[in-house]
Amino acid sequence: MLRFIFRDFGLEPAGNPERTPIGLEEFLIALDQRGGNAVLIIDEAQNLRSWQLEEIRLLSNIESSKNN
Q1: Is residue 33 a contact partner of residue 27, using CB atoms and an 8 Å limit?
Q2: Is the dihedral of CA 23, 13, 2, 20 positive or negative?
Q3: Eight-class DSSP state of 62
């Protein structure tokens, strides 16, 4: 699932599946620093497996050093 998300943002997934979330986090933080936004819309999310939902939930833990 994360590889599809990675590709949807126009990024090439890392060879190591465990590295992919780190690369996505780096991309999202860099995007935030440039003043950009990222939106992830998942259609038919009710059909996802619990481990896929957990992967998505972990994405919500990404934090930036931006002060609000």
Answers
A1: no
A2: negative
A3: -
Q: What share of the chain is helix, strand, coil (3-state, %, to 5)?
A: 50, 0, 50
CB 38 within 8 A of CB 31: yes
Angstrom distance (rounded) from CA 31 to CA 48: 27
Token readout for 57 is 């939930």
AA letter at 43: D
Q: What angle do CA 54, 65, 19 make, to 5 degrees?
A: 45
Each of the 68 residues of the chain gets a pLDDT tens digit; together they read 777 887 888 887 666 655 566 777 788 888 889 999 888 888 888 999 998 888 888 777 766 555 44
**Closest among 46, 44, 33, 37 to 9, alpha carbons compared:** 37
